Amino acid sequence: MDNPIDPKKVAENPGLMTYAHHAGSALIKPIDKGRTKGLAVEAMRQQTDIQLAQIRRQIELLAEQAMAIQRRVEISERIYGAEMNFKPVIGHTYHLYDKADGKAVLSMIGPREWGKRGIPYAAHAATVRLMADHTWEVLDDL
Q: Stretch 57-64: mean pLDDT, rounded?
């Protein structure tokens, strides 16, 4: 029996061909290696950019926290150098005033509590609260 198909039109190893060898074959596309690598690099860069942005936000938060602690240290040193005619209690709110001579005074009386005479000092510098570590939290500074 003779094969009715022309041998010139038949592949010897059709499974090893890099293209479809008849109309019913599965679609075979060659891989664009440059595009695949380009997409992988782009995905990698996007992911690392996201991670770097997260780290940047964490650094900014830590810097803000460090600045707040530094501010507490500065105000604490200023308060401990001020005139204080009472023993401050942890958790209570006090008011720091600047005197005309450049010195400071810590008071229990707020700027709106002085009555008709008004504040007897040059300026209200800050409203503060004594923390358990004996630093002062600045509630309001002017």
A: 97
